[in-house]
Design a protein that fits this description.
mainly alpha
Length: 192
């Protein structure tokens, strides 16, 4: 929010600047309020304002939290757009493999085993994708984990991670069920 320089250094490098804009005042905690009130009253005509270091840092944290909320909203929008896309992609992939699955069915595989095979394959892909995303998110959360507010971002990230994984696996199961319904043997007679 600002650059703090020694007044002599500032005057040497920027001689046209004549007024100080910020004073750092150190005072004991028991007299801090009296010093602040005295300086504010005495220098009121010059626009003098006092603020504690904690107030200034709280302003920076509000700005940072606003940015984080914006990125969380954009990330949630991306998830809303991405999850149906993953479901459609999985559905198309299973439909493209329908002849292969019909051959396995003709060779004696039960429909339940085919369902399990396809669901496991795609669930592993979803879990792998979510795992890579979780590692990236963890790298982004490392600075927040060191602060005293570390519980909230970590809990939010874990809830979001569980939600994405749950919706992804649910999408896999639904896409697999829809793609494998009907008569599989008819897929053997279809033209490739």
């Amino acid at each position: 929010g600002g650059l703090i320089l020694d007044a002599e250094q500032l005057a040497e490098r920027f001689p046209t600047r004549s007024a100080d804009r910020l004073f750092l005042i150190e005072a004991d905690e028991d007299v801090r309020a009296q010093v602040s009130a005295l300086l504010s009253d005495a220098l009121r005509d010059f626009g003098f304002q006092t603020a504690s270091t904690l107030e200034i840092l709280a302003r920076y944290l509000r700005v940072e939290n606003t940015y984080l909320a914006i990125f969380l909203a954009l990330g949630g929008l991306g998830l809303l757009l991405g999850v149906p896309g993953v479901g459609i992609l999985l559905f198309r992939h299973v439909l493209a493999r329908r002849r292969e699955l019909a051959l396995l069915h003709a060779l004696g595989w039960r429909r339940r085993d085919l369902y399990r095979l396809v669901a496991m394959e795609h669930s592993l892909l979803v879990a792998f994708g979510v795992g890579i995303g979780a590692l990236s998110a963890l790298l982004a959360l490392v600075p927040a984990l060191g602060s005293h507010l570390s519980r909230q971002p970590l809990q939010s990230a874990l809830v979001l991670l569980f939600g994405v994984l749950s919706v992804g696996v649910l999408g896999v199961l639904t896409a697999t069920r829809v793609a494998l319904r009907g008569r599989l043997n008819d897929a053997l007679s279809e033209e490739p």
